[in-house]
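Can anyone check this?
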Amino acid sequence: MDSGLRSELIALTLQHLKLVGIALLIAAVISIPVGILLTRQAPLRRWVIGFANILQTIPSLALFGFLIPVPIIGGIGPRTAIVALILYALLPILRNTLVGILGIDPAVRESAVAMGMTGRQVLWQVELPLAARTILAGLRIATVTTIGTATIAAAIGGGGLGVFIFRGISSVDTTQILAGAIPAALIALAADEGMGWIERKLPPV
């Protein structure tokens, strides 16, 4: 690999990681509090989860295209790509937050309340620690999925390793395609293994 391609690979890899990192951070900040809210508001669960499910069924390239004409969040570039990645990452984090908290034995909650804990204390000292493993599993799924989906960001000028893939497809250059696909796959495998290791260290529900 020549120095020019190597430096471009490094730059696009960092760009890819930035897209994924920002999208996952925002998705987690949205999904975890909403998931907690849904454990307290049962009537809302069907609608919110249903909406997230619908987003998940939209083909990724189509979603990127739909967002381009949307005011403020749309356009060509990384911003639109990040919004699309956030929308795709919402469901697994949201669903696992909900499942993790609702899966806690009610007797544990009742014991905490009987000890005089407030609702906030029960959440932070009992529910979230016990549900942490399940929530992290959702974040793990979202991370791996987002790393792969982020390669499509190049189609709307979002950058990342997809630049190599789309360039390789247009020029029928296998080397360029592999230059984007292999690093993306390795990043996904590393993220999956790393988060899996952390997940195994957390206490089960």
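Reply from J.R.: I decoded it. Residues 3-40 form the longest helix (38 residues).
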